[in-house]
Amino acid sequence: MGKTKKAKFFTTLVIFSLIGQIAWVVENMYFNVFIYKMFNASPADISNMVMASAVSATVTTLLIGALSDKAGKRKIFMCLGYILWGVSILSFALIREDIIGAIFPTAASVSAICITFVIIMDCVMTFFGSSANDACFNAWLTDVTTSENRGSAEGINSMMPLMAILVVFGGFMGFDLDKGSSWTAIYIIIGAIVILIGILGFFIIDEPTIKAEENKSYFKNIFYGFSPLVIKQNKMLYVYLICFAIFGISIQIFMPYLIIYYEQTLKMSNYVFIMAPAIILAGVFTFFWGKAYDKFGFNKSVVPSLALLALGYIVLIIFTNTALVFIGSLLMMCGYLSGMAVFGAIIRDKTPENKAGMFQGLRIVGQVLIPGLIGPYIGKLVLKNAEIIINNDGTESFLPNQNIFIASLVVLIVLAIAVAGIILLAKGKEIKNEQE
Fold it and tell me: How far is Cα 316 from Cα 311, in angstroms, rounded to an integer?
């Protein structure tokens, strides 16, 4: 890869990954805040929204990933997908109690209808976002990288979620999130940016050379990754996907409630200033940890990631003062992002050549569907008896507590046992090969 082509690749990677993750941050972290603040959503409402979105993402990625493989194209799906993704984000500016109340004047609960509309439109937005990002951008990234630079590329890709959080945190500082007008402005700004990036993609994305699956049934392609023969031929890919799913469950137990926990439970009105340094440091750490994967491989790079995540959980479970919450959050974020990079890289390494699109649906099952269904459900259970507060308007809201981190740690211990088994098995094979 020449210097010019390499620069163009990394520019495309950074722009599409960052803007895509900004859109996902608004959905994954701020839709929860949106329905919590605007419509007094319950833990069940938040859990239902996350689960519905996870199902939508999985089905979409299966359908569109296989379609892009059959077409032998990535660019058109990425660009049009980002444009329509942005349009769907703009639609959230219309979900307000005054507008919905005017449409349904006899409704017993306008807030409940608004929450339902948010969940439905979240699924629509997820369809376009997963088409563009989960299915085709990730397939494109697999197509244009090799085992020699995949860890570095994945390190950049995996640090973008926290970079996106930093951008969104900073951007949202100028808005009063207790006001509906602020959310309207946010959705218009984010939607417009995503649309512009989709248009820009037509000029900067290089179409990878992939073999179109012209002679295979589209529907067979959709379920290609679930074939017993394919599973048998790629056993370790599925082992790593299962581990990735357990990792994701641990994250999804606490993530939907994280901002609410900081702001409402801990009363950290300045949480943006506290979290920004942690996000920057975690992002830098993840960038270099991607290079560590390239040099040392999965077994040696995954253990420190899981250890950092566990330490972060422990600190957040025990302490609530600002300084130690910062330390716990930093450790948690370093472990989370570096873990994403390591698992993402090994899964790309194990993905069969020219099958990236078909395997994106399988990846989403492990990365999104299973964590998105199980994680929030566990979070809802552990918050069942959470403290309830009465708002100024007489409505009730819940306060997330440290139970979300305790449950996350328990799941992480299960993952650590599974990873230890993989490492021991690999060492056993090495010893056997040496003896032979």
Answer: 9
